[in-house]
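Take our chain:
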Amino acid sequence: MQTEYLRTLQVVGQLGSFSRAAFELCVTQSAISQRIKYLEDHYGCLLLDRSGKTPLLTEAGRIVARRAEQILLLEAKLLNELKHQGEKSRLAICCTPTFGVAFLPQVIEQFMLREADNIDLKFMFHSFDRAIKELQENEFDMAVIEHCDQLDVPGFDTIELPRDELVFVSSPALQLPESDLDLKVLFGQCLIARKSNCTSRQLLELNLAKQGCKIEDFKRTVILDDLRLTLETVLGGGGIAFISRSLAAKEIRSGLLREHHVPGFDHVRMRTAVIKSERMHDPAVTKFMNCILCMFPLGHSC
């Protein structure tokens, strides 16, 4: 059966008119009548009630029209797949800055080694709020984000990744002991902080509030929106920062930085991959996720 016959039944049911349906489909009114009659003969039942001034779908007609919508959607998907056969897949990804700086270069390297000739990529760094907004506006196919609260993004699937540990870091030049520190000791330092829409800043402020304190209790606060510049400033002895341990892991191991925990502080936030539901099993997405999981000790094998 030709699918335009099913489309004809849909249009007549929606418009309630053979003549308007003929205009909409750019065919004669006679052709509309012939198509409907063919469908009724084919299915062996009346699909339209013609007893009134306006043709109405019968119960059987509504069933056929409902299934016709599914068939026409499948046909459109098939035509789209055939149209793009042989073309490169496209994958648009955004991530919050911490994951972008600490892990994305290695992820891209692994992915491009395997898929450089098959997939076109687009990457952007965004804050948590903007990443979610642009995912919902279909600017991206997936995102990797750090966050403090549970995620609820309708139309998207999520994959929980290992949590992100945040610590205070300082240069040995500041002579802060490498142990758990009382907040009063840290308040004597300059804090190198992120903007208020960054989840590391939000986690810090939540922790401070639980202890009856606020960010203004630090000796001084400098706002920097560049994680690399933040790290360089701390390395130079310009202050302390509450940042992801993954960003400073190499410097901590080498002794260039010291890490500090505060008793009673929540030092972890969640990290999640958020993926368009319809692309969850797309080979490009699956391969990119495998490269991400390889970055973590408990991830999948590479």
